[in-house]
Amino acid sequence: MPFSYGPDGSPVSPSEAAHLIADVERRTLLKSDLRLATGEWVTVRTLGLVFDPDARAGVVVSLNYRPRVWGTALYTPAPENALLEVLVTYDDPDQAVQEHKQAMAMVVVGTNEPTNEPSWAAELSWTGPGQ
Fold this sequence. Notes:
By secondary structure, the chain is an alpha+beta fold. The protein has 5 helices and 7 strands, in the order H-H-E-E-H-E-E-H-H-E-E-E. The protein is globular, with a radius of gyration of 15 Å.
């Protein structure tokens, strides 16, 4: 089973995966900026993650398995664009786009669904697009 995928969900070679990882803008479906309580900014991106964590970890999967290669994640602002944490993963890019606002709400509320336990992201506050 391949473990690296392009933005369209098709398997890619290791060299193409390396190019994709380096180009976060190419993989981004949606992005929103959040301002930390400290005044610093983070970017919430819904994007192609490139790697399927289950396949990469060698997890046994069923015949009907769909790679979870899309997700919503926290990044440092451009130009650094460093990954801080993947919040949610999806097996469908349309679902990822549809649930971007729900993932944003999870960050704003500061809870980890479905457990509702407090999240380190509780210190974030929504301020709209970066200014």
